[in-house]
Design a protein that fits this description.
Blueprint (H helix, E strand, L loop, with lengths): L1 H7 L2 H13 L3 H22 L4 H11 L3 H15 L4 H8 L4 H13 L2 H60 L1
Helix pairs in contact: 2-3, 3-4, 3-8, 4-5, 5-6, 6-7, 7-8
């Protein structure tokens, strides 16, 4: 256990764990959308504050809590520094959903990138909230069934010895 914990603290392990999280059936999609919403919100706020795009990308990448996304955003920052657009640089990461890239591309072409990043953040925050509610509503019946089985197991474990004892007392008479 201690070895796994120590391994999970290394940078390569965190990237591997992030890749695993991304590939999870339902939770992976929710996790990616949450990360996109968080990044978009921070980048929008920084750009609205007057910080240049490359510097804002650096700060936004540091605020994201995952090593995989942080490393991808470092490549995006380098690509933007070389003159590529933000949307095409984000598309190269293969992490950001297509819709978010299209929305950012529209924001770049109209000159309203901070406002569009805010819209991306709101859209994905709402989507994450909706999907989390749906996932939890699917989990509730499973929890109820598990609790029912657990209670039945406890009852049988408590009453079986009593019934066995009463049978042995009644059978010896």
């Amino acid at each position: 256990g201690a070895g796994i914990y120590a391994w999970s603290k290394t940078e390569s392990a965190q990237e591997s764990l992030d890749k695993v999280k991304m590939r999870l059936p339902i939770a992976g999609e929710i996790w990616v959308k949450y990360q996109v919403a968080q990044f978009s919100r921070v980048l929008s706020t920084l750009l609205l504050g007057g910080i240049p795009l490359v510097q804002a990308l650096e700060t936004a990448a540091q605020s994201v809590g995952t090593k995989l996304l942080e490393k991808s955003l470092a490549r995006v920052r380098q690509s933007v520094r070389e003159g590529n657009s933000l949307s095409s640089s984000l598309a190269e990461t293969k992490i950001f959903p297509e819709l978010s890239i299209d929305m950012i591309e529209v924001g770049e072409s109209t000159g309203a990138l901070p406002a569009m990043l805010g819209s991306v953040a709101e859209f994905y925050e709402d989507d994450v909230q909706t999907r989390m509610a749906a996932a939890l509503s699917l989990i509730e019946p499973g929890i109820m069934i598990f609790m029912g089985i657990f209670v039945a197991f406890v009852l049988v474990a408590l009453y079986l010895p009593i019934f066995s004892l009463s049978d042995s007392i009644g059978g010896s008479r």
